[in-house]
Design a protein that fits this description.
Blueprint: H1 2-32, E1 35-42, E2 52-58, E3 67-73, E4 80-85, E5 89-93, E6 99-105, E7 111-114, E8 118-119, E9 133-137, E10 140-144, H2 148-152, E11 157-168, E12 173-174, E13 179-184, E14 188-191, E15 200-208, E16 220-222, E17 226-234, E18 244-249, E19 254-259, E20 268-272, E21 278-282, E22 287-291, E23 316-317, E24 323-330, E25 333-344, E26 348-355
Antiparallel strand pairs: 1-2, 2-5, 3-4, 3-6, 6-7, 6-8, 9-10, 10-14, 11-12, 11-13, 11-15, 15-16, 17-26, 18-19, 18-20, 20-21, 21-23, 22-24, 24-25, 25-26
Length: 368
């Protein structure tokens, strides 16, 4: 019985030793392999053609790796050596391959082990942001849009990219010279340092953590316009030298001027009726006005487009919170302007105003 047991153990020993060697070989291979290979696309503005891809991995734990070979291939194609690097990162410029892996290399230039393969699917992107709208500002445009891209995948969303280009008014199209205005993690963006009276097109895309860029939103146009806050104009009976206002002084080219009510080029004056009420009155032929709404508005930026009708030469009482829109004939054509009354005193009115320097453009605060 003892002899039989010894023979059985001897017979099993080679198999057990072989299994142990296989396990050791697997452990060594794992310790030589680059780990956690990931990628991040570099957005270009074209969702189908990124500027490149940044590959990142963890060096093998064995410490035997002296360098790394980076391999890539197109869909179903043969693997090609893309680069050899001593860094645990590699930037592959241009449109990326469909798949990549990284192999560790020892001091004798022998490949030790390879990482897992990563697959890049350019279609794995967020939906295009929707519902872009804007507020026309002085030398700027405040953009905002819906959060649908974030809602689609909150865990993969990273940020937005905002683009703009010139608008060709003669053809009614956005030009092809799009530029990156900037990026933001919120669903709003202030495009600043813009020329007043010059229309631009805007669009936005959504970017994932690994750099996938969505299709752009629909293009949205807006035209910055001049404005100012807290301007005081007196009633003519109180101070005739400061009872008039010009949105544009064509002689000095100054935007927004308090002037004498007697000037022949004045846009509107403040007049006081017998009951003490103050009224905004068109100052000359070629200037008409209308009440924007019958109820107070929260801010000057609440005035979006100038209405298409309803203008007249009659005076309208100045009341706090109400807004008034002007149709102003200048030497180069018709311009639109808006006034929101902030405060009415005994003998003066404090208001905010905006003026669209683009001829015939009704945008005072671009609505959706």
């Amino acid at each position: 019985m003892k002899l039989s047991r010894l023979l059985l153990v001897a017979a099993l020993a080679p198999t057990a030793l072989l299994g142990a060697c296989d396990s050791l070989t697997g452990l060594l291979a794992d310790s030589d392999a680059p780990a956690n290979l990931t990628y991040e696309l570099i957005p270009s503005g074209d969702p189908n053609a990124p500027l490149g891809v940044l590959l990142t991995w963890e060096p093998p734990s064995s410490g035997r790796a002296n360098a790394f070979n980076v391999y890539g291939r197109a869909n179903g194609g043969a693997w090609q050596l893309r680069a050899t690097t001593t860094s645990p990162t590699f930037h592959d410029a241009g449109t990326p391959d469909a798949q990549y892996y990284v192999a560790s290399v020892d001091a004798d230039n022998n490949e030790l082990a390879r990482s897992a393969t990563v697959t890049i699917d350019l279609e794995a992107r967020l939906p295009a942001p929707q519902g872009m709208s804007s507020i026309s500002l002085n030398g700027a445009v405040q953009l905002q849009w819906a959060a649908n891209a974030v809602s689609a995948s909150p865990t993969t969303f990273d940020h937005y990219r905002v683009y703009s280009t010139a608008y060709d008014g003669t053809r009614g199209v956005c030009t092809a010279n799009w530029v990156l205005e900037g990026s933001t993690v919120s669903d709003a963006f202030l495009a600043a340092n813009l020329a007043n009276g010059v229309t631009r097109c805007f669009a936005v895309s959504a970017i994932t953590h690994d750099g996938h860029e969505s299709i752009w939103s629909d293009a949205h146009i807006d035209t910055p316009r001049y404005d100012a806050r807290n301007v005081a104009v007196f009633a003519r009976a109180a101070r005739p030298d400061s009872a008039g206002f010009l949105f544009l002084d064509e002689s000095s080219r100054k935007i927004g001027s308090v002037a004498a009510a007697a000037r022949s080029d004045i846009d509107f004056t403040v007049e006081q009726h017998d009951d003490g009420s103050l009224w905004l009155t068109p100052g000359r032929t070629g200037v008409t006005m209308t009440l924007y709404a019958s109820t107070p508005i929260a801010d000057l930026t609440s005035v979006d487009h100038a209405p298409s009708s309803g203008f007249g030469s009659a005076a309208i009482q100045a009341l706090p919170g109400l807004a008034y829109v002007y149709r102003v004939q200048k030497a180069d054509g018709v311009h639109f302007a808006a006034v929101r009354v902030a405060y009415v005193a005994t003998n003066y009115v404090v208001f905010d105003w905006s003026y669209q320097s683009a001829v015939g453009n009704p945008e005072l605060n671009r609505a959706p």
